Input
Amino acid sequence: MSRSARHDAAVYRKTTLRNGLRIVSERLPGVRSISLGIWLNVGSRSEQAHENGFCHFLEHLAFKGTRHRNARQIAESLESLGGSLNAFTTREQTCFTARVLDEHLPQAVDILADLACFPTLTNVNVDRERQVICEEIRESLDNPSDYIHDLFFETHWNGQPLGRPIMGTEKIIKSAPRLRLKQFREQHYRTGSVVVAASGAVSHRRLVDLVRSNIELPEGVAPTPQAAVRRPTIHRCFKNDDSSQTQFCVGFPGLPFNHPDRIAAILLSSYLGGGMSSVLFQKIREDRGLAYAVSCYHDALSDTGIFEVSLGTDRKHLKKAFDLILTECRRLKRKPLGPAALKDAKAQIKGHMMLAMESTSSRMNRLGRLELMVGRYQKTSETIREVDRVKSRDVQRVANLIFDEGQLTLAALGPVNPADFKGLG
Output
């Protein structure tokens, strides 16, 4: 039996409750663990300008106390069983996650339901967590390699919700009224916008029964976030400071998650900057020594996407590195990838995918995101066939679609001379 066939031995099931809440599970042979997530279709792009950071704030506050547990009891709930408990917020989703042995599934559902459904949001906890989040924001701002990505999104999505930082700003977090946080939660935490996903040694029927018994949220669907709208022109932002290195991002509008060419876009990003063997890493670091690291990714969102190349370099090398990036983008528009390069890019993507399928947590994340983004399950073998079907001409066509220099975004943080880029546009 092939590796992909073994991974596809997973048994997938889906149940939609009368209140609209969806439960998806993937039973895997030969494992004892279960990774579980409560996914809410709400993220920072769902916030108004004066609410920026509310989703992340609410995620934090859930761990400060619930109807049934205080903060210490939450922290100990699964750790005492050898399991783990976590949560994260993105631009489009909020997720509360757990990983436990199969025998502890009831405890995992119970604690995750407590976090998602019954946070107390007391005045004391709200005020205390303001300080924690403000420290987290300051830490991010003090880390140029983190902050550059927020700056890049802000520049690319100038004035749009997608361009706002996920954690919000200190000003908003410090003044966010407790009542408004509760109202936001009640408005967006709705059963029709919730997916419970599980992967591992899980019984679907048992999971459905536990979800029915434990999860209580208002019925309905969360408000639809503002559509992604970006003015089709060059966007640039240069933040000069006295750092010894300049963090730099260059990018273009990408493709949405459900776009038929999304796999070709991933292949494109893998070829350009998907690791040490990628063309940009080799040409910028290995051949010329202009940067320590170069990375590239294609981030697919529900209705849009973004294609980004990032690096850190000395000011005097910045324009050379930028020119090399554009040179490779232009070459991909003019000339299709050779058979060997395409084969290597496909092998890398398939290898990453198959390795991820060894993890119940990775599989659970994939399950939850697929259900929220496209509303259906996709076997690993189906995705691999999609990768295999991509031709060199498809990658070239997508390069011509994405690498529109009239819609370029540039963001630089650190020593930079804007005059070096005045010829753009």
